[in-house]
Amino acid sequence: MRKLINKAKKPLKNVLKPLAPVIVVGITVAMMIVLLVLAMDWGYLAPAVGVPFAESTIQPIRVLFLSGFLVGVLFGSLALLYRRYREALADRWDGYSTWLKSMIAGVASSLLTAVGLGVAVALDWIPISLVFFGVLVTWPIVVGMILLGYRRGPRSTSAGTSIRTAYVLTRGLEPRTLSAIVGLLVAIATGLIVSGIANWWVGGVSLWIPVVLAGVTWAAITLVAYNRYDAALVERTELTIERLQPSSSRAVTELTVANTAGRTVDLSSALIRDTDLDLYRPEFAMTLKPGQQGTFEITGDFSLEPNDDSTELPLGYDLKLGADTPAIFTTDGAVHYLQWTENTAQVIGRDSADHLVTDDRGTTRDASSRTGRTPPAAGEGVPQD
Fold first, then answer.
1. Which of these, 77, 169, 251, 256, has the minimum number of CB atoms within 10 Å of its CB?
2. Residues 219 and 122 in one domain
3. Where is this region: Disordered (predicted)?
4. pTM for the whole thing?
């Protein structure tokens, strides 16, 4: 018998050892909740729970302890899983697009807000309408903050300039999402103002009136904002890829672009998107005057080949999952679709005739000029929607 017990100890110990911190967290959280309830004299809020198929009742203080224990075990388990798979989770998170990260964070924050306010409703501290209000406010604020936070200018001289840079880039990259956020915030403010005026003027109105008015406002403002963002986006084809030179010492490629426009192009804090719609921020701070060239580095993950992948949507629409040529988004609200010379197109075996530059005689232009400028390092890629 003793041999059997000793033989079972090791596997049992292997199971209980990782669970011990979780159990400790659960007990700690349960005791803190019980002590808080007793100190604040909130014991009357905890119900007694009857045990199914048994003629017994769990006392309120035990209900509190068990509830706190389960909450502690839940969060302790999540912390344990995160600690064990932290690197894998970090790699997966880094592979998500900025848009998807903002959506996940927005939904998670809204759920946490709903749970927190739901507890307040259960304690009769707030009306249930504030739960819906909290969720509606949390989602656009969190999503907007993440979208702007990832695109702030790294070399901006002030916080205001950095936020403005992020806003302009987000307006060009995510016009639909940004317009929906603006519309929702304006709609919430409109509903609150209407409710406040109605309560002050006539002593209140039915809830559906400010709700319907807010819904109409959201649709109208979203449409107006999107049209303004779309009209403000300037599409240009004045940057040409003049040279592609793989590095002999590192796994990067030097990409040289020339400004063929009659205006100066400021690439400071600009973002470049490849043909797989992955977004990069090369660490360059250059301003290209007319005819001037600039060189920066791209990694092997940067896609240059044309990508015509798409997915079908309802009503016969298609959602493009790729692009024909890389594009640079500058902080003045312009998107520069990079053009190709015959020489650079041959380097990657590009067979598309789109975005191929020609000279005054209508023939494709060849260029292989170099610059003496040290190319800035390539930025990290972040997939975009």
1. 251
2. yes
3. 351-385
4. 0.72
